[in-house]
Structures
1.
Amino acid sequence: MATSANAQRFGTTANADNTGRTLTYAYSTKTYATPMTLKPNASQTWFSVDSLTGVLTVNLSTSYAQKCDEVTLVFVSDSASAGHVVTFGTGIAPSATTLTVDKNQRATWTGVFMKGIWIEKARAKE
């Protein structure tokens, strides 16, 4: 079910859920393949790429996203080589362009969906 860019899963208006009962969560492990198009479909969605073995382009679908949804991407680099570059593509605001994940390193990227696009909220590396 596709939703509009202005729809949201919670609210404070009459008959809107302000308790969190309608919030949904999803987690998925993905096998490394580039490009990778991910489809967040919950209020909080996590995707983990457990064996990052090369450069990666990540696209995020906006088809099922609603205002204020969050997506967290987890990258775990292999031990064979250093400096795997993750490029953020379609569906992600251009201010978040790349993330380099070094050898044996874990990194995360979190975005929030607003006005039809995923906007970077945070990133971290160990």
Note: Strands lie at 25-30, 36-38, 44-52, 56-60, 70-77, 84-88, 98-101, 106-114, 117-125.
2.
Amino acid sequence: MIKTNLLNLDLGKNPGAERIIIGPFTIALKQDYEKKRALLEEKIDVETAEISYTKAENSVLLKSNLRKPPNAIWDIFYILSYLTGRVVITREQNYRFITQYSGGNEIVEKHDLFEAMNLAWENRYNFENDNEKRPLWYYFEYIQNSEIENQLIFASIAFEIIQEITLKEVKLDDGVDSEMVKLSSLKKELKKIITKSDISNQLKTPLLNNIGNWSSKKSVEGIRRYLFERRFLHDIQVNDDVRDRIQFINRLRNSILHRGQVAEPQNNISMEQIFNFSSQLIPGFIEDYLNSKFKIEHFHLVRQTHENMKGFLYTGKYPGIKWSIPL
């Protein structure tokens, strides 16, 4: 029997069970769990539980081509950390994590944790290849960083991967293809007009470059299709207000991916709003993807978060943020 202490596991106050079984693992809370749990507000390396097992299979959630296949205890680390928003690890094996800063969200309510843990364990095989696992890996880089711009770099990369995975087998039709054809034709015509015009060469070059950067299937229209596939949109066809908010999401993501910084304020949107919405929306898309893989979408808090994000697209408002996006 192998036994080792588990750091930072928070099952809430008076969790109702001192022992939890997940697959081949048994997690037993420390006798002074309540006292140690209270320390988690100030410390990030508190031994709140003990994990034990006799023999465990190889990890499913870590990279498949590692030279030495890791033990499935790493799958427990990922699942517990993801669901609780804290980096849950053993002291002997914390070398994989740069820091133990815990900046994630609680994905389910405390009273749903036991059921969610076992569902996630059973469904971890839904990550069929390394590319499908990458959003999970990047999410863990996200929750370990205390600087919002660093967090959003990892979150935005994960969002890009998720979008590509979601759209890989989806034909961009239902008006998307036709709109892109129209946009492509418009770009060609404008380029011809500008090239033949009397505008100075000093202005022609930036104008032509800007037109060349207008939208693509992977940007605004790609995001729109992704949002529809993931049920954030009721219909693939949207009004101008919803389209503007999709463009806002695209701008948040592109600024981080291409410039390495949070988007600059514009259209009466303050920098504080930019930071607030960035920290909610982009990670929210990753959580939505991971929740679907782990098959935990039916839990109340998961459904509520999904509805909040859908509400933003249709109203510009998001709970906990006192402003709405004035689009």
Note: The chain has two domains: 2-126, 153-315.
3.
Amino acid sequence: MNSSLQDSNNLTIHVDGMDVRIVVVLKGDWPAGKLDPTEYDDASQTIRVSSDYDYISDPTGWMRHEVQHHKLIVCNFRDDEYEYPYNAVEKQAYTEQFKYLRSKGVDNWLQLMPNKAQYVKILMKYWNDAGN
């Protein structure tokens, strides 16, 4: 990912031939109770990232996850409308995130994302799919 700073809170990164807009949100302005450090807004096609997350080194792969959301939206991918995280969009996003984590030598994704423990069964399937 290559990035260019547009102003103090807005970035544009160039990934796989496309530009992706990122808005850095001050930690104090991040939604209360939201544990993930990133989110994707379909309407504005923007990745929002909490200012306390290192989106450059991306230690937990959340930027990869959100970039995958962006790619799917831009390519008019049709979601199957199943509930989170069982839907086709999340399957693609988590699989991409887990491929990235595996490439970094991570062998226990749950240790990095304990707030996802309630989804361990389906996310383990995506983790295993990412290894193939």
Note: The beta strands are 2-5, 10-15, 18-25, 38-41, 46-50.
4.
Amino acid sequence: MISILYDDWYVCNVLFHINGGPTTSLASNPDCQSGKSGISETSLKIDASHPLVGFHARQGYNDQLQQLGVIWLDARNPDCKKRLSLKEQKEMYKGGVPTAMESWLRLSDAQKRQGKELEGLLTFHSIIKS
């Protein structure tokens, strides 16, 4: 499980809770602690069907993270299990890394719908926690 800690302005820490063992923290900010006044926490469960493979973020004023999103691997999708050859990787990025809009346009309707549903669930979850 991971926990994203944030206040009204920015993400201040990410905690990794691994198999009941010690929690690993990405930041050592004493003002950003779980349960502290003014700090909100959103926790996401990670399982084998959708393991966490990375993060994407938006940087705000003074190098602070204003938004943080997770990148999941859909382990049930056969396309996600296929390892691309070096040639396929070069072909994929020959025009440079795609913009957000280019990436969105490449998604299937089902992938777009799934993304919107996940975004809705995360928004609902954050409203409930507020």
Note: The longest helix spans residues 109-129.
